[in-house]
Amino acid sequence: MRKALFTLHKYAGLLLGLLLSFIGLTGSLLVFDHALDERLAPHTVTFRPSGAPASYADILAAARTAVSGNPAPTRLMTPRQPGSPYVVRFPGPEGAPGPIEVSVSPTDAEVLAVRGWGTTGYTMSWLYRLHYTLLSGKKGKTVVGLMGLLLMVFCITGAVLWWPKKNRAGDGRWGKAFRIARNGNRFRFYFDVHRVFGIYFLPLLLVTSFSGVTLVFPQQVRAVVSAVFPTEPLAALPGSHAERGQPISPDRAASIAQAEFPGGDLKRIYLPRGGGDSYGVSFRAAGEMWRNYGASFARVDQYSGEILMVEDVTRIPLGNKILRWQFPLHNGDALGLVGRWLVLLAGLVPALLFGTGVYLWWKKRRLRRASKRSSEKRNWKTTAGSGLRSAP
After folding, report:
1. In-domain check, residue 218
2. Which residues are CB-contacts of 389 (< 8 A; sequence separation ≥ 6)?
3. Residue 267 domain flag
4. Residue 166 lies in a domain
5. What pLDDT score was predicted for residue 387?
6. Domain tally for the chain?
């Protein structure tokens, strides 16, 4: 059994480890995607004296005038920190890799940037698309999800292979399993690096791989989680059912929804898409551990302002909580700044394990070839010597 797992671990790593390393490296770059984006596009950050903030209606109106064709916005994202802009999203043109995003100053509603999500001109979003889909749409997304499953297989097989074997003395084997020998040769050093880094980062690798698989295959993972933990089915998002009339403003909708989450931080406003749709307002409710993610939400009738649906992530069944935790776990936001740095490091580990694994395979292969040549040489000498002794 152990030999079969070793063969699977070795050859799957050699064949697919490079792609898995690439996905991990791009994921590490995305851990601080918003901060890096503001460094790459400093014109989207404003440090003006804080005056009266612009209304959501003014923000949306300014963004709408900056997009050709005057399309209807679909989403408004609030600033992640002081100085950061509002980001308003619009449907992208046909054939575009993603939507159009307009950055707007929070105080005077000045348009700061208009960028196409997923394009090379919007570097971090392009990198996100590279990480999530390999720039290949749904097929690439499926490949990334399968690579997440493969990483989970590596974690399991690696843990089995790492497990210390029993020795006659029975002492010291567990201590050696968690440290890198300093007095060994180069092969031993790389072997220890591969083994020790793999086991120390095993929990993080399992979390990031499972959360990544959840983002790619949400329905399948929901079915698995529901079989183990109590889970409520997804409710259909309600549309507006009041008499049609003058829609309420997004500011009014946000104010109504805020009353359902006292102390919560508003993160996004999803604008109605048509006369029968409703506002969706997401919050980071009090008690949620993450900072930049809003998992709780309310749906508000766009005409009457009636609350149609409320979901507080701190009060839902365990299975639903597990599913809602996956995105902030994947980018480390669930554990704050420390969590983000841990996820960044975890994204580098597959490349380290692939590099050390390739070295160990190459070194063993080289030693086997040298041993084979030496054995053949000895056999030839033995045969030649026997021939000379038997000659008349």
Report:
1. no
2. none
3. yes
4. no
5. 53
6. 2
Residue 259 has pLDDT above 90, yes or no: yes
Q: pTM of the entire structure?
A: 0.88
Distance CA 103, CA 62 (A): 10
Residue that is last in its domain, among 96, 127, 158: 127
Looking at residues 306-313, what average pLDDT do you find?
94
Distance between CA 334 and CA 217 in Å, rounded?
21
Whether the per-residue pLDDT at 29 is higher than 80: the answer is yes
Residue 167 pLDDT level (bands cut at 50, 70, 90): low
Q: What is the mean pLDDT of residues 250-258?
A: 96
Instruction: Label each residue of the chain as H, E or C.
Output: CHHHHHHHHHHHHHHHHHHHHHHHHHHHHHCCHHHHHHHHCHHHCCCCCCCCCCCHHHHHHHHHHCCCCCCCCCEEECCCCCCCCEEEEECCCCCCCCCEEEEECCCCCCEEEEEECCCCCCHHHHHHHHHHHCCCHHHHHHHHHHHHHHHHHHHHHHHHHHCCCCCCCCCCHHHHHCCCCCCCCHHHHHHHHHHHHHHHCHHHHHHHHHHHHHHHCHHHHHHHHHHHCCCCCCCCCCCCCCCCCCCCCHHHHHHHHHCCCCCCEEEEEECCCCCCCCEEEEEECCCCCCCCCCCEEEEECCCCCCEEEEECHHHCCHHHHHHHHHHHHHCCHHHHHHHHHHHHHHHHHHHHHHHHHHHHHHHHHHHHHHHHHHHHHHHHHHHHHHHHHHCC
Note the pLDDT tens digit of each residue in 222-238. 999 999 999 999 888 88
Has residue 358 been placed in a domain? no
- Helices 2-30 and 123-133: crossing angle in degrees, nearest 10, is 160
Query: What per-residue confidence (pLDDT) applies to 261?
Result: 94
Mean pLDDT over 133-147 rounds to 96
Query: pLDDT averaged over the chain?
Result: 90
Answer whether residue 153 shows pLDDT above 80: yes
